Amino acid sequence: MRRKRESLVLGQLLQKLAPKIGATIVLEPDWNIAGQIIFPGRAGKSGKKSYFRYNTLDLNPVGASDIAKDKDYAAFFMKKMGYPVVEGKTFFSKDFAKAIQSRRDIHAGYRYARRLRFPVVVKPNSGSQGSGIFFVQRKPEFYRAMRFIFRSDRIALVQRVVRGRDYRIVVLDNQVISAYERVALSVIGDGRSSIKTLLRKKQKGFTASSRDTRIKLDDIRISHKLGLQQLALRSVPERGARIYLLDNANLSSGGDAYDVTKPIHPEFKKIAVKLTRDMGLRLCGVDLMVAGDIRHEPKKYWVLEVNAAPGLDHYVKTGPAQQKIVENLYLKVLKSLAK
């Protein structure tokens, strides 16, 4: 059976926008995730060629992009430059710890979590889209979360919990293109329906809006989060009660986005632009946790991470204004690549 094509917005958008600058997009037909951009040349000949795969384009330097992918390395350099980052440390799977002759195994991770004091956040060091992020409060939860992460990543990051509002700021070439608040996957009770039913209704809403988010009812993170609230999928929340189902606010995990591109405080814009430049990037998604509101002057905030290939597939489906923002972003990207 032929695998279903992945639904990614980048290739489609570039095909739509490329004619505006005389460029052509060639998409690899089997999977539709890799493409070639052919820019106009002289005397009828094709010009410069550029490539993309998933959400990664030929825009950011390879070294800077690789650092951004590694949460621990990125945090090290950001802290060195004076940016407020979340306190944390990496620990290794049993086989990897043995291979590199390190004592920073799962048990060392637990001792570190105790020093930080529970609750702590546990997540893959190289993960993206919020996969494998856990908020843990006790020893059994810690070991369960770490072992889950080690199934797909040999390095886990244990961090102190910071609280506030979660924002992503997208920067391109010294300019803030968009900013939005991210709210974790949640449902609002109607006094009659179970959480499972409410989740299925939410999934139908995603499908109707062409947003390709898939809520997995058997996601270990959902059962973990509900367990901390002494709830289960069969529980029936009271009318108006908001029940959070994940700890991460990524849109790919079913989170909601609230645009703050216009009201964002200018100082936060300056921070995002400077950080992007300091990390050697041209295109960057800067993720911040703000103790307050991003509309106000910065007082207390943390840089959660930087993303050198900020996927906007879910953001673009949140409304026509967001669609326009993303189209303008990628048109500017095409013009930058053409130079």
Automatic annotation (TrEMBL):
Provide a Gene Ontology MF annotation, just one: D-alanine-D-alanine ligase activity
An example Pfam family from this entry, by short name, is Dala_Dala_lig_C
Cellular component GO terms, alphabetically? Answer: cytoplasm
Query: Per UniProt, which keywords does this protein have?
Result: ATP-binding, Ligase, Nucleotide-binding
Domain ATP-grasp positions: 75-335
Please indicate if the UniProt record lists Ligase as a keyword. yes
Q: What biological process terms from GO does the record include? A: SOS response
- Which SUPFAM superfamilies did the record assign? Glutathione synthetase ATP-binding domain-like (SSF56059)
Has keyword Acetylation?
no
Source species, domain of life: Bacteria
What is this protein called in UniProt? ATP-grasp domain-containing protein
